[in-house]
Structures are given as C-alpha cells and as structure tokens.
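Q: Given only this backbone (156 positions), what sequence would you predict?
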C-alpha cells in the first residue's frame, strides 16, 4: 500500500473532525484542491483559518493561484494573512455581568418595556428564587397533590 493513501485518509479524518456542521468546505472542494496540487498541509490551513467560510478566498482563487505557479509556502502565507482569525483576540463573555440573585418590580417593568416576553420574564423570576423558596414551593405542590389544605397567614 502506498504511503500517501494512509496520509490522505488521516487528513480527511482530521478535516471532518475539525470542520463544524456549518462548514462550507465540501468534499468536492477538497477533491478540486487536491487535483490542483494543493498540499495536505495547505488544505489543513484553509480549514483551520476558515478562509473559505468567511469568503476571504474561494476554492477557485486557490486553484487558480496554484495553476499559475504560486508555491505552497506563498499560498500558506496568503491564507494566514487573509484569515479573519489573523490578529484577532478571543471574545470573552460575561466580564461585565453578574449573576442574578434578586429581581425587582422595576427590573420586570424594564424587561417588559424592552420587549421581553412573559415566558422569559417568568423564567427569570423562577431562576432568581432562593433554594428556600424553591423548597417551599415543592412542599406546597406536594401537599396540594395529596389534597391537603393548610391555612396559614401570609403564605397562600
């Protein structure tokens, strides 16, 4: 068995593992790139840098450059430079946010005025309940399911 066959199989496996479901690099694209003489390393770089998905370069652009004699090193440099990942910093979410511990009536009004649905507001209210409140609710539901009625002042 030729040594290139296992290398190609490993490469294809890595491409499919690294590619996410919305990837636009297709099997046809891979065949076209390979037929044009693009190396496995360059194709891996294309996938890693997402240059096809972001329309920085097209498969036709890369194939045409290869046909015109652009060497692999130049292609790889071009791919890295065209990548939207070039010089990008990671996005960190939640640096300015805090956990919701309590929601006030004004918070509910602000949410409603900003178009948040009642279902979402109810979910936020449920999520901000303390464990004591949650336990108390569970106990009330259990008693109601047993058809037991307890009369108290202040609760239910």
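A: Predicted residues:
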């Amino acid at each position: 068995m030729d040594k290139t066959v296992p290398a190609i199989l490993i490469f294809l496996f890595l491409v499919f593992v690294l590619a996410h479901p919305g990837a636009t690099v297709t099997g046809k694209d891979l065949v076209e790139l390979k037929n044009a003489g693009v190396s496995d390393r360059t194709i891996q770089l294309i996938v890693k840098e997402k240059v096809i998905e972001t329309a920085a370069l097209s498969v036709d652009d890369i194939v045409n450059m290869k046909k015109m004699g652009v060497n692999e090193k130049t292609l790889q440099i071009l791919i890295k430079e065209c990548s939207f990942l070039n010089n990008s910093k990671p996005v960190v979410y939640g640096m300015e946010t805090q956990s919701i511990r309590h929601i006030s009536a004004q918070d509910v009004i602000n949410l409603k005025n900003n178009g948040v649905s009642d279902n979402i507001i109810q979910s936020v209210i449920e999520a901000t309940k303390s464990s004591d409140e949650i336990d108390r609710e569970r106990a009330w539901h259990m008693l109601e399911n047993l058809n037991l009625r307890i009369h108290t002042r202040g609760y239910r």
